[in-house]
Structure formats: structure tokens, C-alpha cells
């Protein structure tokens, strides 16, 4: 019986002994997180300790872009990391990279090498462990089997993974005691095109650094007290949301296994409407799995700072401390992988789909982004008086200009079939990209634009400067201390919100890599900074650096240019849709419409001019995203067809037959069967409607086989397949409420939500 199978799994999950994981100890004392942090990482500190000083200095010059990595240095590093990895039990190494499929890839190669010795005319083969500089620097996976968007054909198989020296190597423990050395890498084609997410991220980071340095040279004198900034980098903190459900129940849901979301199923009487799950007490099994995950991540140098329950039942979040964006992306992908593996050990399944359950909140990946210098300065820190912090204001208006000019490209960077279920659903930002600054920063910009003093918004008076640390909040309770209040509240409806000293890109999907959205953001801001630099150069004339008056003129110019992108209200409201249209801001509701923005002239020209993408790479990215959208929807359609045909309809037939036999039996002994007949009369039309809609969807999918052009197929999937699937689901969900529970073949939402 299907009910029995569900009950058996629930009973088994409740009866299983807890997995007991202890933190490492030393001399009888449990080690702190800081003591084990990064112990599985071949860090710069570890490298410096194990390499000759000249070799280490050469490597540092290479990382800074001042020197090419030569063979001697590569061989020395390879030997050092091999010794380090073997000491930790490593048997294999892998170039770990990020193909264009929102995942990571790896091919394991053994350190084992056979060496032939010639002794007295005989050959003797001995086994040794070797790892050369050439093996460290690059490897050759089959490029034809990864998404290429037309850059590669099936017979053009050669591609290269190349060590990204900015990301440290690390070891991970696999099952049954295996240990692998991971070498973070980029992935390029035989002709040098980027076939991965990381290559373009590295390019965008370099161009943003170069442009930001030019900006700083224009506005800041260099002297003994102010040394020249040599590097600007973006920082990133990725808040990762996800669901955890029982793995046994997951195994009974074909839709979850194949598509990552439930294609059938309705809400239980209680879900998130009591608002009691957010920040609530974590279920014991979830807390155990999360703690073990954090232990593993700490060893890998991933700085997880926060964990908590999210809004929906069975939904959770972890968030790291901010890092340089290149490493932060690696660490986010590592976090997803470790969560997945550790959840299995606890008989849980992690779901990264943006909308695995209809009717409750979906999951996002909030990307907190800023810019910092090698001097340790955050360029987006307003300081105590932002209206006089011209460096901050110049970089702020550059961000606003970048988002204004390329907001549609930012929307395209987070577009997918799965994220469409979340965006604009009153739980996530809409398809309109706007910027929230908060009332105080808005007042600062308005005051500069209008050439007047800044108003104290609380007192209604004008101030020489405004304190962004905020005010003191009196709680009116003698035993409670006064607390510092921020100058502005948060706007959880904004897709791109300023949150103190950074911007939070809230629209990124939970299962996608942050690389492409951050690449687009870096590029848009770099392009805007070039415009700002041109204006500063023109304004300062022959002066070495721009004066404060010059800076204010340029800042005021860009405040006026970017006013349309600033919005402080409710992004979910219908009024904002109307207002955004008046401002000329695009409202891109569906991904199939967003993908074209990648090839839009203004966006394509910008990305190519900066050297972040080539024309071939841009068309490839467009083709891959469009094709993936069509494939995702088609897979969902075929899955729901199978489920309805093989599971839902048979369950409904069985229940209808049971009702009919019961009614006939009662009638044979002279008892009216009004109740059974009433249910039969309700049930039968729904069964017939479900059969009709399922047949219609099946016929539609057959017709789509004739569409060759991927753009037309994606549009058809959006306009025809999606609505056809909804019609099937509507009838199936009605049956779930009617068919006897003992006959229903799928675990229901209440079981998935509350059995963890």
C-alpha cells in the first residue's frame, strides 16, 4: 500500500539513531572553530612555510599580475602541495571548475606513476607518487560534453582546465576514507574561449580594479600619508537559502528527484501562515546536519557565520563572512556541495530549487556586494558624513549609473525557468530592477542635487552633516540599555538595496552560481566608472587631481542622470509597475524575454569593450541559457505526464472503483449510498478533466518535437507548456484532496514539511 510505504519511511526516520559528530580535540580540550579553520587548505601561509623564499616571492608576483608563472616555480609548488596533500591521506588530485550548468565539475587523477628501472639488463617497474608543475597548471577534460552554446561541436573535444592561482588549493575527504586534492581552475576551449563561469568573473574583476584605480588617481593625492592604492577588489557575501526534507520521502517523489520541485501537491492546513518558523528553533536532525556541515566547511576555510530557520517550513539559511568575490563564489559552491553530502549522512535531502513547494516562500541567494582597496578601505562605506565623503559618493553614483544602464542585463543574469516561479511572487523582487538607498542617503543625494544643506529627517531641521550611524532608540524599559538605530530601515522588496556599506542583490536564484550575476554587476559598474572618470578628467582640467568643487559638480551630474533608478517604496505594489513604466525602467517578467538582453546592443557592446566577453562567448551564453530554459520546462512536462499516467490516475481509478463497489454492495442489501454516490459524482468529472488535460499536454509535447530553433522552443515552453502543466496540476491537486489517503501514491506537503 502507498500509505504504508510513506508510514514506514516516517517511522524509520524517527527510529534511526542520531548521527554523533564531535568537534576535533587536542589534549582533551575541544578545539575552537578558529583553531581548525582552514586546516585542509593549502593557504599562502602554508605555501610560504613549505617553499623556498625566492620561489614564494615569485609566486606572489605572479598572483599580483607582475610575472608569468615559470616551470621552476610551478614544479616547486606542485612538489610542496603533493607532500602536503599526501600527509593528509590524498590519493588523487582534480582540477575543480565551474562549467556553464550552475554546478561544479571534477575529474580525478591518481598521484600514482609507474617508473621503470633497468637493473643488470632487466626491467623492474616500481610505483611512485608524482605531481609535476605541468600537471598542476592544466588538465584536459572532454570539452564536447559540457554546455558550449555552439562554441564546440561534438567532434571538437579538446578543452583545458587551468589553475586559478587566486584561489587556494584544498583537500576534501570522500567516502570510505578517500581524500582528494582540489585545484580551483578555469575552463577554456581549445581556441581560448571561456566555457565556464569563473573566467569571465576574473576578467570582470580585473577591469573593475583597473577602472576603480583610475578613479582613485583622479580624486585622491598620493603622498606619505596616503600611499597609492594598487588593487581594488569586489567583496561578496552569499546568503544561501535551501529546504531540507527526509530523504526517504524524497525518494517517493519523482518530481523532486527529476526536476527539483513538486509538480503536484497542495498546501496542508498549516504551513507558514502562523509566521512561527522564521528564526524558530531548528529541528534536532537539521541542527546536527548543519553543525556537521559547518565543521567541514571550517576545515575548508569557508567562514560560515550565521544559520537560521527561514520563512517557509523546512526552509533554512546559512550565510558567510564577506570575502573577496572570486573566493566567495568558490566557497558558496563548496557550501552547496558540502550541505548536499552531509545531508545524505543524516538521511536528509537538500533542495536548492527556487520554488520546490507551491504556496510557500521559495529560496534565493542574496549576494551582498561591495568594493574594497588593498589598503583595507571599503569604497562604499558612507562614513559619518556621507555628503562630504566625495570618494564614497563618486563610487555610489557609479553603481547607480551601472544599474540604470544595464538593469535589464542584471535581470538576464538571474533568469531561469526555476527563478521565474519566485520572482515577482510577492516573496522576491519583481522583474523591475531598481535601487533602494534609504531615506537618509536619498536626502543626501537630493540635497547635493538641489545645492542645499542636508535635512535632519527626524527633527525636520537642516544639518551641516548627517550621522549615518543613526540615532539612539529609547526602549522605555529601565533595565534595558539604549540601542543604536540605523539611519534607515531595510526594504526587503527591493532587488538591489543598499544596506549600510554594501549592496544586496536579492534577486539571484538559490541554485545558480553567483558568478554570472557578479560578473555582470562588476562590468556594469566598471563601465559607469569609465563615464565618471571621463567627467572628472574634463572637470579637473590640468590639475593633478580633481578639487572638491570638481567632484561635487560631477557627483551632482550623475545624481541627476540616475534619479530614475532610485525607488524607496513597495516593489511588490501595482503602483510601482505603473511608476516604473513612466520612468522608462523595463519590467521583464519572464526569463525568455530576459535572455535577449544579453545580446542587446548596449549590453553586448559594453561587455565586449571591457573585454569580459567576446562576441562568440556572448552568443554562447545566450544560447545555453535559452536552451536550458526549454529543456527544464520540457523535462517538467514529461515528468508530470508520467506521474499522472502511472500514479495519479491509477490512484483515482482505484478509489472510484472502491466507491462504486461500496455503493453497489450497499444497494444490494437495500441501503442507500448517497454519500458514496455524491463523492463519485464529484470525483468522476475531475478524473475525466485530468485525463483530457494530460492528453492535451502529451499532444503538445509531440508537436514541440518539430521545433528546431531553440528561441522558438523556449517561447513555446513559456507560452504553451507552462499553462498546460498548470491545468494538469489543478485537477491533480483536486484529486489529492478527494482520494483516500491510503491510496495516494505521493508523500504530501505536510509529511515533507514536518518530518525532519
UniProtKB/TrEMBL annotation:
Alphabetized SUPFAM superfamilies for the sequence: Glutamine synthetase/guanido kinase
Residues of the GS catalytic domain: 197-648
| Domain called GS beta-grasp: residue spans | 91-192
Q: Which domain of life is it from?
A: Eukaryota
Read off the InterPro entries from this record.
Answer: Gln-synt_C (IPR040577), Gln_synt_N (IPR008147), Gln_synth/guanido_kin_cat_dom (IPR014746), Gln_synth_cat_dom (IPR008146), Gln_synth_gly_rich_site (IPR027303), GS_Type-3 (IPR052725), GSIII_N (IPR022147)
Q: Which Pfam families match?
A: Gln-synt_C, Gln-synt_C-ter, GSIII_N
User: Which protein family is it in?
Assistant: Belongs to the glutamine synthetase family.
In its UniProt entry, what is this protein called? GS catalytic domain-containing protein
Q: Which organism is it from?
A: Phycomyces blakesleeanus
Q: What is the lineage of its organism?
A: Eukaryota, Fungi, Fungi incertae sedis, Mucoromycota, Mucoromycotina
